[in-house]
Each structure stands twice: as structure tokens, then as C-alpha cells.
Amino acid sequence: MKDVGEEIFWQNARAVTRDIGMSHLDPAHGAAVDVVRWCLRVRGRPTHHRQTFLEAESPPLLAYLETLATSGDAAGWRTLEQRIRLHAELLHTTDMQPCARPRLAAIWHTLPELVGIGQTLLDGADEPKSVADFEVVPAPIDTEAKADDGGDDKGSAGKAGSAGTAAKPKPSSRLALPVVPVVLTEAEMKALDLGDDADTKNDATPDGPEGPTGPKPGGPK
User: Fold this and answer.
1) DSSP string covering 137-155, please?
2) CA 186, 192, 194, 195 torsion-angle sign
3) How many CB atoms are located within 10 Å of the residue 218 CB?
4) CA distance 62 to 140
């Protein structure tokens, strides 16, 4: 049974998905947006239900927000604001996602980048990774269950036995995010303590056919 605080947490999460015009998303997406918004407002790390949620659904995002909070440098929070602002401007100029709360939509579009940066922090890597490096692979469809029921009894029994003993697929993450390349700015490198030689770091090219790109919106449909 949920306590009052947890119930309010999920009510806010559902309100976020509604405000950005994407009620079809799992409430976990709204929860992640609300956590980022709250951390920006208080300039602090996620606590209580926010921390518990990220520990279960997105340790990389938790690592990113905690690093900003423990750095003691306001410049780190400004880099996050800048990423959100870039997406907000793009959404506005393209009229891509009109909704009641455009800023919340911009935060949602920024999540994959923040998770990518957070995974870099967890890995202790020298260059940012993309969400593809740790994305949960959807469980394959059980085509055998849809096979023709014809055939002898032995064959049918064999299939039934296999289906009964097969291991259950691991459930997909509720916070499924799109895959995007991540390129850090010099300010982010410094704020996140990802290296002293920012110029060298910026020369790093993330995986992708076209090299470094700016923030791009995207998400599950």
C-alpha cells in the first residue's frame, strides 16, 4: 500500500504526462521530468520518493543529478538549464509538440542526454556514452506459441513443455528512452569533473554515422 507521499509523487507524475500532451506514456516518464524540475528548483539532489524512484528506474539519471548537487557549483545547474532551453527553443520554433507546459516537454526531451551523461559518470569513462550503451532490449515475441496447432500429439506436447519451462523474459524498464548521441560542452566537463583538458575532451566523437550533433528531441511514439 502506498503512503501519502508516494501517492502524491505519482499523482504529480501523471499530471506531468498530461500537461505535456503525452498521457499514453508510462507515468515513470512524468516522474522523471518532475524529479529534474524539483532538483533544479531546490538546486539539490533527489530525496525520499524521488531518490527511491531513480534508484529503481534510472541510476544514471540519479548519478547525474547527485553529481550536480554535490559539486557545489551553480555553473553545473546552469548547464542543465541550457540543455533544457535549447530543446524548448526547438520545440517552439518547429511547433513540434504544442502542449500546456512547454518547459516540462523540453525537460522530457532532454532526459536521454542526461541519462547518457549519467552513465558516463557511473562508468568513469573519458567520453560520453549514449543511451544505446545501456538500453533495455525488448523481450522477443513468442512466435512458437502462435504456431499451427496441427501435428501429432507428441510434437504438441513437446511445444507445450518447452513453453512451460522457458524462463520468463526480464521486464522492460518503465522509463524507456530514445537513443541519442551526447556531446558535452566545456562548462559541463568542468562542472561534472570529467577531465581537466576540456579541449581534448571536446574532440571526442560519440558513436554515430555523422559525428557530434546538437541536442535533438525524440521519444517513443
Assistant:
1) PPPPP--GGGS---S-HHH
2) positive
3) 12
4) 29
Residue with cell 499523482: 11
The pTM assigned to this predicted structure is 0.68
- If 0-12 CB within 10 Å is exposed, 13-18 middle and 19+ buried, where does residue 24 land? exposed
> Which amino acid type is present at position 192?
L
Q: For residue range 91-120, list pLDDT tens digits in order.
A: 888 887 788 889 999 999 999 999 999 988
Is residue 151 left, alpha or beta, with left meaning phi > 0 and alpha meaning psi from -120 to 50?
A: left
- 31 membership: H or E segment, kind and range: helix 27-42
65 three-class SS: helix
Is residue 127 a contact partner of residue 202, using CB atoms and an 8 Å limit? no
Between CA 33 and CA 216 the distance in angstroms is: 17
Nearest to 64 by CA among 74, 54, 56: 54
